Amino acid sequence: MDSANRIAEQYLQAWNERDPVARRAQVARVFTLEATYTDPMAASSGHLGIDALIGAVQDKFPGFRFELAGQPEGHHEAVRFSWTLHAPDGAAVARGTDFGLLDGDGRLASVTGFLDNVA
């Protein structure tokens, strides 16, 4: 799926966007209105819920950034990609893999996240 890389990059842009107005706009571009997000530590739904979750993570980890790790893969309505969370000094503090399901217009309808390694 050629769009797997684009989707993963846009998704991580939402997680890295610090400006609340720009982040909400990015969340709306990437996720469907009723999208769900779950990982071992959190669950959220809808644009407002996902935006609030991202904001809470940013508050807990100020200055940290998510980066794509490896090559995203996709087929049919599914996409899978891995990421690394870097501290402000560049140290990798967490790695994870996310699995998303897309709707007909290519936005994420659901994301399930897995933590592969937490320092």
From TrEMBL:
Superkingdom field: Bacteria
InterPro entries found in the cross-reference section: NTF2-like_dom_sf, SnoaL-like
Q: Which SUPFAM superfamilies match?
A: NTF2-like
Tell me where in this chain the SnoaL-like domain is found: 8-109
Q: Please identify the protein, giving its name as recorded.
A: Nuclear transport factor 2 family protein
